[in-house]
Amino acid sequence: MEHRPPRFGGPSTSPRMDRVEGPTTQVLQCGGVLVYQLLCGRELAADDPMARQLANYVYLVVNTHDRTAIAVDAAWDVEGLYGLASALGVTIRGAIYTHGHFDHCGGELPPFMTRGRRVSKPGARDIEVRGGRVWAGPGDGSQMTGQCQLSRQPLEVGDGDVLDCGDLVLHATGRARGGGAGKPGAASESADPRLKMFGDAMGETLTRCEAGLLITGDTVFVGSCGRTDLPGSDQEQMFASLSRLSKLDPSVLVLPGHNYSELPFNSVGAERAQNQMMRMGMSQKPSPPRLPPCVLCDNRGACGPKGLKIGRKVRIKGLTSDAGRKLNGQPGVVTGFASDKGRYAVRLISRPEVKCLQPDNVESVPSGETCDAPEPEQKEAQAPPTPREFVDAAIALIDNATSDEKVRMSRLEGPLDWGSRDPRWILLTTRLLNGGNARAAFGVALPEVISLLTQEFDPKWRTMVSEFLVSEL
Ligand SMILES: [Zn+2]
């Protein structure tokens, strides 16, 4: 799998037609944490039309200090994900699943989608086969075990739990539970990679966000929210979850489970202002259950005599009782400091249990304040191709199509107007300008490009190019 999108290189190195490149990959940095946002149908499973249609995001959350990672909703193309991780020099510890829908965790497709045939997609099972851990929210485990044919139940992650990823911990922010057996459905867990992670090894678009990153699954999408009309989902619970997440620091970035908007991500503050579903949630559930303290850590800063940060990883040491000695060396996360007792509350990572510890029995784990990975490589500025080079590359792109691709192209249809929204035009610009904008690249020479294209295409290809379908893009 090639991860770096092909760049414009003239006819001889023209990219082949087996994948359509979109905009560059988004990489988000929070201190020493790097989160790769991978769009299914683009970075992963590029050849799967269903993946393109459902537009799921898979996230790779990388601890840049020890170069380990936890994937979120690893499905559709687990092999490709491991390929990406190995290109980055990163070891995947496992994957957390926001919920049990097949588009997020893989496994068998619902029979209504396949006219009763048994079809399965890569997902949690492939993580397990590769020796990775699989985590899921309460209530999702047994469904996932059957659907994904796991050999054992996923490790359960509840509200406020943390996942161990070296000196990084990943915080889980559960759906708001309204009592009763809340079945996940569309309202799902959110994972919040709090700590700091490296450089832009892929040469993609890097966004820094020190306030934190929130991976929302199908809870919040940019400008909307997950469906609650599906079996097992619950409108009330969705409103409570949306209201709850609206309480986060407004600078926290929301990384959604699907690409349903023009923006790949958005801030909590912007969603709070513009997302009508979140606004309905806020008005209908004005006092949702409190968020776990660790998830709010950046608002609180350092606490207690040691100045430990809430939400950060610590290690237990120096306990002398029999029970205490078993805890020595265990990692936990600071959830607060009780000044009346003079003790830190430390949530264990191995199990959801909070210990009250004297400051002497808590030591900080060297971590995330500084980032030891290289700074992002500056992309070398590339001169745009000349109109002639662009047109030669377009012709080569079509001439080099495989017979399969030719069949696919011959089925495409649509008027040829060369406008900026024209799918064929988008195809040529994304394939040949690496996602760039033709108007920006060519400026006043754009009409020349268009006229060259119409002159130079062999008539048989001209027909074919005149038939690209939006769905193919
Ligand atoms: Zn989904």
TrEMBL record:
It comes from the Eukaryota. Keywords: Hydrolase, Metal-binding, Zinc. Gene3D superfamilies: Ribonuclease Z/Hydroxyacylglutathione hydrolase-like. Residues 55-258 form the Metallo-beta-lactamase domain. Residues 1-22, 359-386 are annotated as: Disordered. The keyword Zinc applies. Its cofactor is Zn(2+). It holds the Pfam family Lactamase_B. SUPFAM superfamilies: Metallo-hydrolase/oxidoreductase (SSF56281). InterPro entries: MBL_Glyoxalase_II, Metallo-B-lactamas, RibonucZ/Hydroxyglut_hydro. The keyword Zinc applies. This is Metallo-beta-lactamase domain-containing protein. The lineage of its organism: Eukaryota, Sar, Alveolata, Dinophyceae, Prorocentrales.
